[in-house]
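INTERNAL AUDIT FORM
Audit reference: QA-55
Scope: verify that the stored structure record matches its stored sequence.
Auditor: D.O.
Record contents follow.
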Amino acid sequence: MRDWREDKRFFWATMLLPTAWFLLFFVVPMAMVWAYSVGENVGPVDVAIIGTFANYAKAFSPEVIKVMWDSIWLSLLTTLICLVLGFPVALAMTFADQKQKTWLLLLIMLPFWTNLLIRTYALIAVMRTSGVINTCLAGVHTLLVHTGLPLAPFEPLPLLYNKFAVVVGLVYVHLPFMVLPLYAALDRLDKSLIEASLDLGASHIETIRRIIAPLAAPGIAAGLVITFIPALGAYLTPDLLGGPDDLMIASLIERQFKRANDWPFGAALSFILMYITLLFFAIRAFMGRTGGKVGVH
């Protein structure tokens, strides 16, 4: 009797359903969107597929370039902040005992169990003019005034509807995407190398820089890509926390499909965003092939 692992008919039979699902619900819809991207509006609801690249050329207008640039640098800033905040957390989880690891992983995963809209509105409640932060600052200001300090009247901090709020919201949402791949990489490290580095007189910072970071390079690269790409395509957080001048690429795409009724231009923007995403995946693949090697001399 032939081993089922060597039976090609069994292999193709098991691959038939997922392949059909992939083609029907991914390839076909994406092909339709791409077709729209080379079309033009010929009526209120009709699009003619004429093979034009005018929509892609329109995407390089100064207004759209500004939105794309804002989206990229806000996403990069979010990714950098997530790395700075997430690396110590992942490192602490690596050296925690098993019970502590379980609780820490639970706390990291907990946000995924709550709807993003609810979490965003919770953040708004904290950051709004009469929210938790400004209320606490007003209370501290009142106490200082009662002590006799000659302070000016308290003015609530403008924490919402600006780029600061967008970055805070993106970090708040995407921090777990950085912590989890970092922890997965750091947890596989040979801890004897770290102990040897410390025993030989290296400081903790030097050990992190010369031992831990190079060994964890694939996990760092994965965390950077996994955090940057969802942040670049974020729609809800910038839409609720940003101001009128804080438009990001996903919000611009949504406006083309819903408000402007310009499906060809929205489709072209969608594929440009996909091309940028594929570029960063290629960078991640290159870093995965070349990183994570430490030489011992």
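Auditor finding: record pair retrieved intact. DSSP finds 13 helices and two strands in the chain.
Action required: none
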